[in-house]
Write a structure and sequence with these properties.
There is one protein chain. The chain is mainly alpha-helical and 280 residues long. It contains twelve helices and five strands. The strands form two sheets. It has a three-stranded antiparallel sheet with strand order 1-4-5, with no helix packed on it. Helix 4 crosses helix 5 and helix 4 runs antiparallel to helix 9. The radius of gyration is 18 Å and the shape is globular. 36% of the residues are buried.
Length: 280
């Protein structure tokens, strides 16, 4: 038995406009990028969509990275929307991972996971670092008083958002000993657009400079790599282009986050999240 839940495109676009009207500053600059017309998915939704098997509707059982990758996506998404920033660099706290995450605005975003994270950050004193927040949001802490910050059922909640947007459907599958809710891809056009965007960023539209790259595309490359789903986007490429895309992504992700994050007009949160994953 397959159930399919859809929400009208007009309603979704209306919600997007209401959400965007809350954003300001840097976020407005990001929304004016060349692919803003396609930007109806959050970074977390894009990462999960890349990781899902199209027909089966679930991520690889061997992937133990995607949970933390999705939490990193929440931090970057909040930063791009102008809700959080890193504290200013000082002589003592110059490294990205030493600097605390500061709440810039607690205005609702319209996304339940982002808003839940904002509430946690507002209630946290003293502030935490990027690496600490990723660990807290995944529940990887030994402090019983901080278990309340764990975001639960993240993958399922993101999948439900994608079902409402008409990109996934919901099914029940039997795996011998248990039943499992799965979310096969129904809107393959949206996923193909996403894959094409990543492929072009490393092939036809390669700029060889992360600071000239669209910020959301750079963020998606970082998060897809950290979630171990980046290779999924290159699986359809011929061997020569596959090798080129993998080599260029490796060169990009091997850059020193502290050096890149301190350059003019750099998106510090993207590099801080990469630094956190490099250290873990």
């Amino acid at each position: 038995m397959t159930t399919l839940i859809r929400r009208g495109r007009r309603a979704e676009e209306s919600q997007e406009k209401r959400t965007d009207s809350d954003d300001s500053g840097k976020d407005n600059d990001d929304d004016s990028s060349s692919d803003c017309k396609d930007m109806r998915l959050t970074l977390m939704e894009e990462v999960l969509l890349l990781g899902l098997k199209d027909k089966e509707g679930y991520t690889s059982f061997w992937n133990d990275c995607i949970s933390s990758g999705l939490r990193g996506g929440i931090l970057i998404e909040l930063s791009l929307r102008g809700r959080i920033v890193l504290e200013p660099a000082t002589l003592r706290k110059k490294r990205l991972l030493d600097r605390k995450v500061l709440l810039k605005s607690d205005a609702p975003t319209g996304d339940i996971l982002l808003d839940e994270t904002l509430k946690h950050m507002k209630a946290t004193d003293p502030a935490e670092t990027v690496q600490s927040w990723i660990e807290l949001l995944t529940g990887e802490t030994w402090n019983p008083f901080k278990l309340q910050y764990q975001l639960r059922n993240v993958r399922e909640r993101i999948a439900k958002n994608l079902v409402e947007k008409g990109i996934l459907t919901t099914e029940k599958q039997n795996f011998l000993l248990f039943d499992m809710t799965t979310h096969p891809v129904t809107n393959t056009t949206e996923k193909q657009r996403l894959v094409k965007k990543l492929q072009e960023s490393l092939l036809d539209k390669w700029v060889n400079d992360p600071h000239r790259m669209d910020k959301r595309t750079l963020a998606l490359l970082v998060l897809a790599h950290s979630s171990d789903v980046l290779e999924n986007a290159f699986s359809t490429l011929p061997d020569d282009k596959y090798d080129m895309a993998m080599n260029r992504s490796r060169d990009l992700l091997d850059l020193d986050p502290d050096v890149e994050g301190n350059k003019a007009n750099a998106s510090e949160m993207i590099w801080a999240v990469l630094s956190a994953f490099n250290k873990s």
